[in-house]
């Protein structure tokens, strides 16, 4: 069975500071990993996925298979980054359409 | 393209009743997944439908069921409601099983 762990429920930083949201996973196969974000009063939306290797809104995430981690990073946090962030994994095989989510991290960026 | 829509947005039901929630996916998306979101358990996978077939199911009792129509619209049904079924129910659509999922706004179900 797969599992996603986000060790920090709350994370506070000041504007302009670097931010890192941690995500660790357990899965024996090759997972697809995602970061989703939910801004206040908005629906859950995809931020980025590991295979695209894109930088979205200044965020990047690198899959580290050795450490089974997929941490989300941004060098300079902005107030508009304040939101709930979820790390999610989808497995291969017969795990059709199933995303396994972490418990989420609430990021607050102070002015 | 229009996003994923869910109706109704809010529901209040009484214990023992049943409820049906509806989800319309993004045009062209044939996969629809359902999730339950609660403060205690977070986001949990209910089931996934693709081309009218349920391909995957999470660890929920048989009171939770769903279906998908030929136009990819999906419904989920919860029978014999319990207080613990109070939650936000999200549906998400995608092009395929490992593709990114696009979420609807959710249906907030309150069971009294």
Keywords:
heterodimer, A: 111 residues, mainly beta, 6-stranded mixed beta sheet, 3-stranded antiparallel beta sheet, 11 strands, 0% helix, 42% strand, globular, B: 112 residues, 7-stranded mixed beta sheet, 4-stranded antiparallel beta sheet
**Beta content of chain B:** over 45%
Broad shape of chain A: globular
Measured between the Cα atoms of the first and last residue of chain A, the distance is 41 Å
Q: Helicity level of chain A, as a percent range?
A: under 10%
Main sheet overview of chain B: 7 strands, mixed
**How can the largest sheet of chain A be summarized?**
6 strands, mixed
- Secondary structure: number of strands of chain A: 11
Q: Which H/E pattern describes the elements of chain A? A: EEEEEEEEEEE
* pLDDT < 50 runs, ≥5 residues of chain B: none
Beta fraction of chain A: 35-45%
Multimeric organization: heterodimer
Overall strand count of chain B: 11
Q: Which term fits the overall shape of chain B?
A: globular
